[in-house]
């Protein structure tokens, strides 16, 4: 693994999760959560964020996808936080506006060390496929934000198709994250001298 990389294992009575992330990757992705739509979204995150991303999850899907999605978000947030360390030399801020056909999403990130999520997304459908509840996407990002200690704004600008909307969300998040973690020089980009 590169210097800006991390591996997190989370093992509970509900899930077993392994996440590996390398910030300075090439977009190599190995994802298997047992939830096809979620796997597709995580693949977008790795490829468009140019992260090398591994996510292996074994969860209690016989109940539903909630625990697997939540715990994956927790582990990914922890891995991101560990990978960027004290955040010295990073751009800190990143934003992106990404279209997928009729869907358009704007995402902005601050690696300030203050977890906060603003979620302005209203999907047309409440379920994708046979059983993936779309409210879980927000919960995934809540878990990522809380555990990576980033500020994240996600704004839906337009959408008629729920799949397109969430693909736009994940791609915009990926591009904004890539920009925020870009190495641009020495020191911590804050008047406080720390980002925690």
Kindly report the CATH topology.
Ribosomal Protein S5, domain 2
Helix content: 25-40%
Please state the structural category: alpha+beta
Work out the radius of gyration: 16 Å
Give a quick rundown of the structure:
The protein is α+β, with helices and mostly antiparallel strands.
What does this structure look like?
The protein has 196 residues and is an alpha+beta fold. The protein has a single domain, classed as Ribosomal Protein S5, domain 2 (2-Layer Sandwich), CATH 3.30.230.40. 34% of the residues lie in helices and 31% in strands. Strands 1-2-4-3 form a four-stranded mixed sheet, with helices on one face. Helix 1 runs parallel beside helix 4 and helix 2 (66-84) runs parallel beside helix 3 (135-148). The protein starts with a strand and ends in a 15-residue tail after the last helix.
Please write out the topology:
Elements: E1 5-11, E2 15-22, E3 29-32, H1 36-49, E4 52-59, H2 66-84, E5 93-100, E6 103-110, E7 116-120, E8 127-128, E9 132-133, H3 135-148, E10 151-158, H4 162-181
Parallel strand pairs: 3-4, 7-10
Antiparallel strand pairs: 1-2, 2-4, 5-6, 6-10, 8-9
Helix pairs in contact: 1-4, 2-3
